[in-house]
From TrEMBL:
Source species of the chain: Nycticryphes semicollaris
Matching PANTHER family: CT120 PROTEIN, TLC DOMAIN-CONTAINING PROTEIN 2
Keyword Transmembrane belongs to the record: yes
Domain TLC, residue spans: 34-230
Protein name in the entry: TLCD2 protein
Any one Pfam family match given in the protein's UniProt record, by short name: TRAM_LAG1_CLN8
GO biological process: membrane assembly; phospholipid homeostasis; plasma membrane organization; regulation of membrane lipid distribution
GO cellular component: plasma membrane
UniProt KW Transmembrane helix keyword: yes
SMART domains from the UniProt entry: TLC (SM00724)
Chief location of this protein within or outside the cell: membrane
Membrane topology: Multi-pass membrane protein
Taxonomic path: Eukaryota, Metazoa, Chordata, Craniata, Vertebrata
InterPro entries noted in UniProt: TLC-dom (IPR006634), TLCD (IPR050846)
Transmembrane spans: 133-149, 169-191, 203-224
Length: 230
């Protein structure tokens, strides 16, 4: 068993334990007590988003390792492989959590999203290649912090507060920069390097981008309509 797979398993177990204990650490407000599992789920997701965003943040890694811009296949800074493996463990845990606690018609989009991420990140963990590419993808977690905070504020019935409005503005700004622009750059990189990437890996990456891009554009429209044009 490779160390990467052990790290994935350890991450899965750690996030599972965190999910079970979060209700004691962050008790749900009265407005969220009817959906306790969702409250725990969002806080677990927030914990994961904070991990790649605050622990050796991805933008800093690119500044300190400019070689990443030239080679996203074989080049990655120390700790990047572990960070990607931990993320695979989280997405597996979140997949299982939603599958067990939410109806399929309510969660199929996220389950589909997680499946794509698990496959793409899993390839990077197993092959020790494309870790730099996965690291670029983890830039979206910077926006995920504000996306999850928005859900927490909604569940806490704080939608009419200044905090919610401020978070909505930051959420939309980081969404454009760290989701839409990042996915566009990744798609552009794949197209430019199609001759240097094995056909199977290129196919997986292309399908992943083709799925993620419209999903993120649709979510952006929903956020814009809900928070600014309601």
């Amino acid at each position: 068993i490779s160390p990467g797979l052990l790290l994935v398993a350890g991450s899965f177990a750690a996030f599972r334990l965190l999910n079970r204990g979060l209700e004691r650490l962050v008790p749900p407000p009265p407005s969220a007590r009817r959906n306790r599992w969702k409250w725990r789920n969002i806080w677990t997701s927030l914990a994961h988003s904070a991990l790649p965003s605050t622990h050796c943040p991805s933008p800093c890694r690119f500044c300190l390792h400019p070689g990443l811009f030239e080679d996203l296949v074989g080049t990655h800074p120390p700790g990047a492989h572990s960070l990607v493996a931990v993320s695979v463990g989280y997405f597996l845990e979140d997949f299982v959590d939603m599958l067990c606690n939410q109806k399929l018609h309510q969660s199929w989009e996220l389950l589909f999203h997680h499946s794509v991420v698990i496959v793409c990140f899993g390839i990077a963990v197993l092959l020790h290649q494309y870790v730099g590419f996965a690291l670029v993808a983890l830039l979206v977690e910077i926006n995920s912090i504000f996306l999850h905070l928005r859900q927490i504020l909604l569940m806490a019935n704080l939608v009419h507060t200044t905090c919610y409005r401020l978070n909505s503005i930051i959420n939309l700004g980081t969404y454009v920069v760290f989701r839409i622009a990042t996915l566009a750059w990744m798609t552009h990189w794949l197209f430019l390097n199609r001759e240097n990437v094995p056909p199977v890996t290129y196919a997986v990456g292309t399908v992943g981008m083709a799925i993620m891009t419209p999903m993120n554009i649709i979510l952006f429209y929903r956020l814009l309509r809900s928070d600014f044009f309601k």
